[in-house]
Structure formats: C-alpha cells, structure tokens
Design brief:
about 475 residues, about 20% strand, alpha+beta, Jelly Rolls, elongated, Herpes Virus-1, 6-stranded antiparallel beta sheet, 3 domains
Amino acid sequence: MAWAASATSLADEVTCPICQGTLREPVTIDCGHNFCRSCLTRYCEIPGPDLGEPPNCPLCKDPFHPGSLRPNWQLANVVENIERLQLVSALGSEEEGVCQEHGEKIYYFCEDDEMQLCVECREAGAHRAHTLRFLQDAAAPYREQIEKCLKCLRKEREEIQEIQSREKKRIQVLLTQVSTKRQQVISEFARLTQFLEDQQSILLAQLESLDGDILKQQDEFDSLVAGEICRFSALIEELEEKKERPAGELLTDIRSTLIRCERRKCRKPAAVSPELGQRIRDLPKQALPLQREVKLFLEKLCFELDYEPAHISLDPQTSHPKLLLSEDHQRAQFSYKWQNSPDSPQRFDRATCVLAHNGFSEGRHTWVVSVDLAHGGSCTVGVVSEDVPRKGELRLRPEEGVWAVRLAWGFVSALDAFPIRLALEEPPQQVRVSLDYEVGWVTFANAVTHEPIYTFTASFTRKVFPFFGLWGRRSSFSLGS
C-alpha cells in the first residue's frame, strides 16, 4: 500500500543518530542536525580529551554549545503523525470502510470469498463472477444469525446461572443439615454418656455387694471348717490314745467309743451358697438394659441422621380399579376383577398404580414398602410429580416425572432414562424409600440389610407423591415407616 510504504520511508528520516530509535523530544543544534533531547544530554556529559572545549556534533563533528539546544516542534509533530500511520498500518486501517489496497471506500461484500470490496476491487477479474451485495444488504442476514446465536447463548447462560443458583441453594441445605446432625450427635452422645455412667455405677455397686457377700461367706465357711477340723482332731486323738492302752483299759467302754466314731456326722459346708452363686451367674443379665439401650441408641442415631418417618396412606381416589385396597389404606392387592370405582381425573385408568394421599413439597422423608410377589408379579415404588399423567400410557422415567425402581420376580430394575438391571446380593422384600426434596435425592435401600439399591438425583419444582405400581395375581404390598 503506497501510503504505508511512505510512512515507513519517513520513519527512517526521523531516526535519532545516537540511539537509532525514533526521535523523542527532538532538539536541533547549531549545525542543524536533530537528536533526542535525552540522548544529546547524555552525550554532552561524556568528558572529551580537551576539557573546557565545546562538544562536537556526533554526525558532522562541528562544535556546538549545549546551552543553544532548540526544540524542533514541527519535527515532533511529524514523528507523532508517522507513529500514528504505522499503528494504522499494523491494525489494517485507521477508519472502517477503507480498502487497504486501494485506499477507496468499501461498498460491496463478496459472498463467495467473504471479502469487503471497493469499486476497484469489484472491477478486478477475481470477483466479476462472484455474488456481490451492498454492505448493508449483505450484513442483514448475518445480523439475524448473530441475533439467533445471541438468543441461544443468553438462554444457555441463564440455564447455567439457574443451575448455579440451584446448586448453591442445595449446598446451603446440605450445610444446614450437617449442622443439625452435628447437634443431634452431640445431644445423643451426651445422653448416652450419662446413661453409661449411671449403668457403670449400678454395675459397680452390684459387684461391690457381691464382693462383700463372698468375703462374708468365706469367713463363715472358714469358721465352720475350723470347728469341724477341731472336732475330728479331738476324736482322732482319743482313738490314738485308746489304741496304745493295755488290753484291759482298751476294752473298757470300747463298744461305746466305736459307736461314737461310727455315728459321727461330718458337715461339708459349701464356700459359696447357692443363692450367691446364682447371683454371680445372673450378673450378665444386669447388663441387658445396657445392651438394649446401646442398640436403641444406635438405631435412633442412624434414624435421626437419616430422614423423618413419613406416615402415609394410599389414596383410593387415584387407585386403578384392579387394585384392591385395605380398609386402613395401608395395603394393596392386585386383582383381575375390576373394582366398582367411579372414574375421576385423579384416577389411573391404564397403569395399575396408586398414589399416597399426601405429597411433599419440602423436607426429608422416609417410608418402607413390604412387597409380597407371586410368580411373575412385579411391584414399582418411588415418587412422582403431582402432574404425572393419570390417563393413558404412563412412561416410568425421570423425564416424565417418575423416579422409581421395579421389583420383579427374581430381579430389580432402576427405571432411569433407560431401565437399569441392578446386581444385588439378595432381592429385597422390604424397600426403604427416602426423599430429600431440597437436595433432590430419591434413595432406595433394603430396609432389612440396609444395602443400597439405587439413588436418583433430580430438581424438584412441584409437589411429589409416593408412588406404587402392582401387577400379578396374588401380588401385594403394604406400607410401613
């Protein structure tokens, strides 16, 4: 480009002879040469061979007076304009709409090459067969595309912001739950500690009592044994003396002496009485309350660290006519015989399902479902959104507002976007369903072995209800907590 080449040529003319850079604050000396003020000042500070002589020009060696430096304002303006032109050259163009090659204003856009053209560019042979449009006409459809992209990007950004907000709330809920659980743990362990101290005192007192009774019976035993030993020692001594006497004296009252020996009664006392022995054997029973309390403590602690029990009942207004509900609405049995149930918007008409009477829109809740399946039967348990379809086909998956697992004869499946057959140690007969509404967890576990079954993660925005499905003659389920 001609003007860019001219700017480069001018830049060579405004170079400082000392630093070889662009002139900064140019000054002119007596001989007419120009230098940077700072460069020339440093040059004058260098001492020459002849002290007191004026310095010489770095180019022509003519002497000049340092005090006669004259600022060259015109040259400074030229330097500034050259730098601006160089910057424009580096960026492409100082003004929008100017052709870099010809310096003409741009009017056209080549659709084929995606290039902006001036009149001279348009007349060039390279673009004559291409589709050319005026800039405004060419920009209009691209503006529309950009607007669509912006709309999509803004929507996605809003979704990400919503996710961020929701996850922050979820984290706060979890932190609150952890804080509450911390207080529960402290409280329960303090109560257990007090109970253990009381039980320790009771057991130690019982052991102290047993210790005293054992020592008392030991003294009684020692006294009794000592008396018996003394009696037998006297009799032995009498017989030994009798045996050494002459025959006449030995035979005197011999029959009476022998009768006394034969009729002797040796008392053989026990060191510990049966009653005391029984008390010692029964001592472990005194620790049974401790064992029961520790068990209750662990169960209560685990329960309080988990969820609140939900006291739910089946809603007959939603029950499919093939489900036979108990009078207390705690049990359902599958029946091929249709019940005389009036149709209503709330009732399932194709899926053999039923909902709980009350739903949840907050909190942490848990309930137990006991399942009794006949051969070929199945039972589905979980939660559903309140707006789940009641009429027609019901698709059991999270996208339709259903978070559930299916227990069938011999296997268990998680009804996710695609059913997942689960590998469990044993098929559960009692399933614990736990709901954390704020966090968005629906957790299933074996209520007997506590083995985890499956966990769904969701974002609840509407009320959810416990959900139950049943199929198979003689199959049934019942509720618990």
